[in-house]
Amino acid sequence: MPTDRGQAAGRPTISEVAAEAGVGRATAARTLGGYGHVSPELRGRVLAAADKLGYRANALARSMSTGVSHTIGVIVADIGNPFFAGVVRGICDASRAGGFDTIVLSTYEDLDEEVAATNVLIDKRVDGMIIASAAVGGRDVGHIKEALNRGVPVVLVDRAVPSLDLDAVVIDNRDAAREAVERLIAAGHRRIGFVWGPPMERPPATRRELLEAASRNLWTDGERLRGYLDALDDARIPFDPGLVMVGRKVEERVTEEVARMLALPDRITALFCTETEAVTGALRALRAAGLAYPRDVALIGFDDSAWAAVMDPPLTMIEQPVHDLGAKAAQVLLDGIRGVEPVRETHTLRSRLVERASVAPPP
Amino acid sequence: MPTDRGQAAGRPTISEVAAEAGVGRATAARTLGGYGHVSPELRGRVLAAADKLGYRANALARSMSTGVSHTIGVIVADIGNPFFAGVVRGICDASRAGGFDTIVLSTYEDLDEEVAATNVLIDKRVDGMIIASAAVGGRDVGHIKEALNRGVPVVLVDRAVPSLDLDAVVIDNRDAAREAVERLIAAGHRRIGFVWGPPMERPPATRRELLEAASRNLWTDGERLRGYLDALDDARIPFDPGLVMVGRKVEERVTEEVARMLALPDRITALFCTETEAVTGALRALRAAGLAYPRDVALIGFDDSAWAAVMDPPLTMIEQPVHDLGAKAAQVLLDGIRGVEPVRETHTLRSRLVERASVAPPP
């Protein structure tokens, strides 16, 4: 909720003005932001409450200036991923409630496309941007800094970029992964495969090499890997680099790697999958090997879906709060557009382990 | 391919100019469209070939005028549907190859949102629009006519709107549905459920009432219903209105309706599902009734996916050429932007029945 951000700065928030005025937050935001329709009576109550509480923001000055297009731009890594489709739905719903239209560009994980997309949004004069960036290091963020330099607020979603001091809305990837792997360990597993790891050319010789590769790649994947290692460490299970898939992050590669892990002398008895394609790739490998879950191999994966629930047996999956993730990012961005001073924090939302029937003790 | 369109008008196409010049189509298009980078040598060859063949288009005049933003806008009914996500990918790939950026708006099947989205795109000065419209009748298309009146080319994708005389790129919904239902009939089924039909308040008394409701609703759904009826007619199987789901098009409703059809004295032995949610809803109903596919009930659905292939048994599904659908729509639109005279035809791409293991004879 934006409340905590305002309170951190010791100033009344829009929510507090709304409560004082006895109106909804959206009405207060419309009044204080100077956009959309608000009846004269409600407008009067909101302005009186704002006056009483000493609410101030450059919002009024800002949104009454010309050039506010009431459009926000969203750049996602891959709109074909149901995860991002859900995030975009949350952004659209929240921005629409705030009186803003949303335009979306998909970069398909290509940083050059992301740079081009940022330029398109600047050119189209959006009032702010939400970006799930393909950037993995400080050298990749010139385009985001360029947008900020032009006065366009930016909020990151799903993927924090450590080198950028910006508001970011993410889920608890590391905790979610740790909880899932702990669940497998609690069922008795010690040989737990991890798909997928960073796209390295060859398998890592050491844990350190693996973590270094992860830190040069996607933040989200790296956090999930750290959660896997946390759970192994807590249970004093030695790390085995042979149980981590590296290489191209595609379904075919997952199938190959899981087949390899199933053929080891001390084979895996459980799998933790960080993506939908990793789950479907793993299921193909199990079937090809004539193995069934949860009898021969236990399995937990990201992200929950209608399909996961109708599998036989149904799959235990991690459900991400995709709609909330998008809605929260939009709220933070709209606050920024209305002139609320950014606190540049990482907002972490909780995921949920949906327990079904794909975890059983080792055979 | 755009070739047939140019040939229909009796004029050389960009592809023919490209062939004559010995260059790729993209190079010829860039040269004739006056955008992007083309080396002086290739440019000279293309212009000579265009001259020799008598190629003419208002493309040059048009794209050299100011105001061309090299951006196209896409309005889809629901970006959360993997079908549209795939179509958008095809549009992005083809428009990028043609030197255009793509911005996307999702209306979540709300016609008011679609009108707003059209205004946003006009406001953002896109060079053309691709729309999967939620419009179902002539009274709903004012916003599309408005865009056309402002000189913005529009191509429809996935959904034809019969009252609009526009280029549309669709799949063979009716034939695809007929082929799938014929497959079920060939396996011996005569009691075949259909989910989902039009969102009627109460079940139709007659076939005519059902078809009238369908004609007032989404074109795609109506075509699939007609294909189902075609297959029944060809096999002289009498139409039973009790085997068609009507009402809200959501998974929960599918589960209720399939449960009802399974409880009939003369119960269904097969199901044809027109959407992914219809498939997952049907699978929930089968499981709740303690029935298995294909042993107790055969099943075919739209659309194929990685999940459908890893189900046990794997599902027989209809695969739509989603990427081609988007790419073709983008090609037709870019031709229009470059001034190629529109022929205002419906381009129909072929879907494919992917046979796996969810069809068996009736019990």
UniProtKB/TrEMBL annotation, chains A, B:
SUPFAM superfamilies: lambda repressor-like DNA-binding domains, Periplasmic binding protein-like I. The keyword Repressor applies. Keywords: DNA-binding, Repressor, Transcription, Transcription regulation. CDD domains: HTH_LacI, PBP1_LacI_sugar_binding-like. InterPro entries: HTH_LacI (IPR000843), Lambda_DNA-bd_dom_sf (IPR010982), Peripla_BP/Lac1_sug-bd_dom (IPR001761), Peripla_BP_I (IPR028082). It comes from the Bacteria. Residues 12-66 form the HTH lacI-type domain. One of its GO terms (molecular function) is DNA-binding transcription factor activity. This is LacI family transcriptional regulator.
